[in-house]
Structure formats: structure tokens, C-alpha cells
Specification:
Strand order of the largest sheet: 1-8-7-6-5-4-3-2
CATH architecture of the largest domain: Alpha-Beta Barrel
Structural class: alpha/beta
CATH topology of the largest domain: TIM Barrel
Order of helices and strands: HEHEHHEHEHEHEHEHEHHH
Distance between the termini: 31 Å
Oligomer: single chain
CATH class of the largest domain: Alpha Beta
Shape: globular
Number of domains: 2
Strand content: 5-15%
Largest sheet: 8 strands, parallel
Number of strands: 8
Length: 303
């Protein structure tokens, strides 16, 4: 049913629903959803929670992932995904958009927009994708102060601290930072850009009792593992941050090439979501039924 009717709205906060999903048996699988439509499709496939990637978000805007978008721009995406799906959402908070006060502002804005969780990273601006080279790290104490600020500002938003230290400081550095971030108030740790199964296993062994998130991004430094394999390694969450955007972009590229070649979309029809499928997914008739002045739409008859 549409989100417009109160009876269809969640009765508990997004943060509490994210925690509940995380506490259920098995690994929490968080597919990336860069807009409301992707969120609806992920929900229809059976997912219980979602991830909003900074890389996917900025790429959908035609921008690189260098920490150049604003809190309000991210909140726009959070609102549409939370509204469309009603699912708890983990949001990429980059470096927190500044220092402690900026982090607190981000937490309040994201939570008000409908986020259930956020992760902060220990890079300096301009930040880079975690799987790229020569990332600049913030001091561990400075990052811990941001985590503490985030924990102080939240109502019940889940705070995940991401560390990019493995590439430059090794596992020892990443684990030491993670321990400091947990002490500062992080609910979970996201060790980014681990390059082997052995590294994932060692991080798990050295952070007993700490919730851990794995990043399964394509074309990156991490070996291709399944959700089941991450679960067997002891990880509690796994994200596929940019997968949906990559697939959508490749399909659009093919569409535009077909239009240039043929001057028509005919060859692409078998690969398109139909009008009926689209209307069913977005609940067109259910929305129409809420207003007696709107005649129920009837699909065009196609030969």
C-alpha cells in the first residue's frame, strides 16, 4: 500500500528496525539502492534492509565519489528510499562532512530523513573510494572524536565506523583503530578494502564480540565472496554498494546505442520493464484509490 496512509507506516524507528534485522540469525544482506525505484525492486526481491552508497549516489548525479556532495543532497536520497520501501537503510556518511559539530548535524539530518544506520570513515577530504590508491587517513583520535560525536547526537541510529587503514597501516593499524572507535561508541566496524580471505579472518579473530561489515564491491581489491562465505568468516553484514547502479548504467548504455543505431527501441523491448510491471511496483492503482476524483487507470491494449 502507499506510504500516504498512516496504517502502512512503520510504527518503530528505522534505527530500532535496523538493529532488529542485524540481531536476527544469519548475515544481514544489504544491497545497494541508489533511488526509490531500486529500493522497491530490492524489497520485492525479498531483502529486509538496504544500503545507500556514496559512490552510487554521486555517480547517479554524474559526479565522482570525492566527498563533494552535501548533507542535504544525501538526505534527499534517504527520504525517497525510506519512503518508497519502508525498509531500514544504512547510509554512507563519508567523513561526516566536517568535524564533530558537522557529524552531529549529519546524524540528526540523516535520522530525521529516515536512515536506520550510518557509517563514517577515517579518511581526510578529499576522500576516495576505499579500493583506490593513496588514501589520506585522519588521526585515530580525531576519528574517535567524530564517532563519539555521532553517538552523542543520535536517538537510536546505528553508528558504524569504517577504517581504511589496512592499506597503509596493515591489519595491526586497522584493528587498533577499530578498537578505539568501538570504545568511542561505534556499534560496528567496517574494515574497508581487505584483500584476502586471510585478512577478513584475522580481523574477525582480533575483534571478538564486535559486529563487522564486509564490502563486496565488484572490480575492487576484495576477492569475490558470497554472503554465505562472509557469514562463515564471522561477519555480521555485507553490502553490495554499486551493483544495481552498474547494471542499470550498462542497460542504459545499451539502450542509447540501440537508439542511435536503429532510431527505435524495438530491439530493446524484451529487456524493458513493462508498463504493467512498473505500475504494479509503484502501486499506481492503490494511490489512485485514495482519491475518488481520480479514475482508475486502464492499461493501453497492445497488439
Amino acid at each position: 500500500m502507499p506510504y500516504l496512509t498512516a496504517s502502512d507506516l512503520p510504527t518503530t524507528s528505522a534505527g530500532s528496525r535496523f538493529r532488529a534485522a542485524l540481531d536476527r540469525p544469519g548475515i544481514l544482506q544489504l544491497p545497494g539502492a541508489q533511488n526509490g525505484m531500486a529500493a522497491l525492486q530490492a524489497k520485492a526481491a525479498g531483502f529486509d534492509a538496504l544500503y545507500l552508497s556514496g559512490a552510487a549516489m554521486t555517480a547517479s548525479m554524474g559526479l565522482p565519489d570525492l566527498g563533494i556532495i552535501t548533507v542535504d543532497e544525501v538526505a534527499f536520497f534517504i527520504r525517497q528510499i525510506a519512503r518508497a520501501s519502508g525498509l531500514p537503510l544504512l547510509v554512507d556518511g563519508d567523513t561526516g562532512y566536517g568535524e564533530a559539530l558537522n557529524v552531529m548535524h549529519m546524524v540528526r539530518v540523516f535520522e530525521d530523513a529516515g536512515a536506520g544506520a550510518v557509517h563514517l570513515e577515517d579518511q581526510l577530504l578529499p576522500k576516495k573510494c576505499g579500493h583506490l590508491n593513496d588514501k589520506k587517513l585522519a588521526g585515530a583520535q580525531d576519528m574517535a572524536a567524530k564517532v563519539a560525536a555521532a553517538a552523542r547526537a543520535r536517538r537510536d541510529l546505528v553508528i558504524i565506523a569504517r577504517t581504511d587503514a589496512a592499506a597503509s597501516e596493515g591489519i595491526d593499524g586497522a584493528v587498533a583503530r577499530a578498537q578505539m572507535y568501538v570504545e568511542a561508541g561505534a556499534d560496528a566496524i567496517f574494515p574497508e578494502a581487505l584483500t584476502s580471505v586471510e585478512m577478513f579472518r584475522e580481523v574477525r579473530a582480533r575483534l571478538p564480540g564486535v559486529k563487522l561489515l564486509a564490502n563486496m564491491t565488484e572490480f575492487g581489491r576484495t576477492p569475490a565472496l558470497t554472503a554465505k562465505e562472509f557469514e562463515e568468516l564471522g561477519y555480521d553484514m555485507v553490502i553490495w554498494p554499486v551493483s544495481s547502479l552498474r547494471v542499470a548504467n550498462k542497460a542504459q548504455e545499451k539502450l542509447y546505442a540501440t537508439l542511435v543505431r536503429d532510431g527505435a527501441t524495438t530491439a530493446m523491448l524484451p529487456e524493458m520493464q513493462t508498463r504493467a510491471e512498473l505500475y504494479d511496483l509503484i502501486g499506481l492503482n492503490e494511490f489512485e484509490a485514495l482519491d475518488a476524483s481520480i479514475a482508475q487507470s486502464v492499461l493501453p491494449q497492445v497488439d
